[in-house]
Amino acid sequence: MRLIGITGGVGAGKSEILAYIGRHYKCEIYLADQVANEVKEPGQPCYAQLVELLGPGILAPDGKLDRAAMAARIFGDRELLQKVNGLIHPAVKTYLLEKIALARRNPEVELFFIEAALLIEAGYGEIVDEMWYVHAGEEVRRKRLMESRGYDESRIRQTMENQLSERLFREKSDFVLDNSGSLEECLRQVDERLAGYTRV
């Protein structure tokens, strides 16, 4: 089984690429953001720790974490944000390592993908067999974020400033997927990279 990390700037098109891979290859795909939400559910590793750290005010009436209340509690407090990330990131990594171990015992799984914008910063380069960087030019990403997510210039600028530079993304990656043009051209690059793996 080949373990592949996929990262890239916001708006680069990682989700569309992974949706295609999920339809056409024998693989498992995990998005770190979705896993982070899962480990915060009641009964999961981070739930009680987050309530203890942030207080019962972050709970919704159904007992689950209220994302808006949690964001408001953390907003502007860099030290508190670091403490929250210090709980969530290790729990996400533990969850993924368990899934990887299970997948390695399943002969049907040929490829295992982990996606996150902060994959490199979180140290996943030491875990994966190869790191893919999905590249798209800044103007292309700006246009996509405005059209698909309704982001304004301020939010786009703030989000982009919090991500790695183009140079660092390239330095830390084994393969660069260019998604500045058509999606079809990008997916052709995917198929070339994955030649030899079973298509379904």
CATH superfamily of the largest domain: P-loop containing nucleotide triphosphate hydrolases
Average pLDDT value?
A: 92
Shape: globular
**The top level CATH class name of the largest domain:** Alpha Beta
Report the portion of residues in β strands: 5-15%
Helix content: 40-55%
Secondary structural class: alpha/beta
Radius of gyration from the CA trace?
18 Å
How do the strands line up in the largest sheet? 2-3-1-4-5
C-alpha termini separation: 16 Å
Order of helices and strands: EHEHHHHEEHHHEH
Q: Tell me the major beta sheet.
A: 5 strands, parallel
Low-pLDDT runs: none
What would CATH call the architecture of the largest domain? 3-Layer(aba) Sandwich
* Total number of strands: 5
Secondary structure tally, helices: 9
Number of structural domains: 2
CATH topology of the largest domain: the name is Rossmann fold
Give a description of the structure.
With about 200 residues, the chain is α/β, with parallel strands linked by helices. The protein has two domains: about 1-25 and about 110-200, P-loop containing nucleotide triphosphate hydrolases (Rossmann fold, 3-Layer(aba) Sandwich); about 35-105, 3-Layer(aba) Sandwich (Rossmann fold). The chain has nine helices and five strands, in the order E-H-E-H-H-H-H-E-E-H-H-H-E-H. Strands 2-3-1-4-5 form a five-stranded parallel sheet, sandwiched between helices. The longest helix is centred in the middle third of the chain and has 27 residues, at about 80-105. The radius of gyration is 18 Å and the shape is globular.
